[in-house]
Amino acid sequence: NAWGYVRVTGELKKLGHRVSPSWVRDLLKRNGLPPCPRRKGLSWKQFIQSHLEVMWAADFFTEEVWTCSGLVTYYALFFIHRRTRRVYFAGCTPQPESRWMQQQARNFALVIGEDTAQPSYLIHDRDRAFYPLDEVLRPTGVKVIQTPPQSPMCNAYAERFVRETRETLDNLILLGGEHFHHVLKRIEHHHNRQRPHQGPPRPRPRRAR
Fold first, then answer.
1. Which has the closest alpha carbon to 3: 49, 43, 34, 44?
2. Number of other residues whose CB lies within 10 A of the CB of residue 93
3. HEC string of 116-145?
4. Class of residue 104 by CB neighbours under 10 A (exposed 0-12, middle 13-18, buried 19+)
5. What does the pLDDT look like over 146-186, one tens digit per residue?
């Protein structure tokens, strides 16, 4: 929005809110919005920083899994909260078809339904596999934001988590889809409960003897 402080003040007055231009200026400044000439098109970083609390990201990665039919490529779908970096592994499948994606979207909505980090925005790349997921989440009020083409750094937290997960999976031999799913949930638990995301790890409390 390219409106100046006086224009915003006038529009608020039409709605019955009497505020001063200086109040509008301070409010915008506190939320990371620069003056009008520099506000035309927020940068991607500014947009992300302004919505960390209500933004999740989604992404896929693939892994080779040994099955009775030989080596099969499995797709793993996960969601990550931008501020806390909390991760939710939705599931894994050899083929992320439409019905499977819709079900994972419903599961995700249920898991975070009573959470304080409910999403207002979901970002992901332009993979067509996400379309069924978007169809389920949009009616819940979630605004889907697609990253620019060939711009993985626009979803940097998800990309970093993929690299970390692959470092673990490279040391394992995965035997079937159930084994892969079990490993993913163990990684999720470690990432959310034990791995420090900000600053040095906290010492574990000593048990009373």
1. 34
2. 17
3. CCCCCEEEECCCHHHHHHHHHHHHHCCEEE
4. buried
5. 998 878 788 999 999 999 999 999 999 999 999 999 999 99
Structure tokens at 70: 């030989």
Tokens of 75: 């797709």
Q: How many angstroms separate the CA atoms of 137 and 121, rounded? A: 10
Residue 184's CB is within 10 A of a number of other CB atoms, namely: 24
Q: 0.85 exceeded by the pTM?
A: no
Residue linked to tokens 């999403």: 119
- In DSSP terms, 59 is beta-bridged to 78
The pair phi, psi for residue 169, each rounded to 5°, is: -65, -25
115-138 mean pLDDT: 88
Token reading at 138:
């949009």
- Residues whose CB is less than 8 angstroms from the CB of residue 12 and which lie 6 or more positions away in sequence, other chains included: 18, 19, 24
Query: Per the structure block, which two tokens stand in for 143?
Result: 């605004």
d(CA 87, CA 120): 17
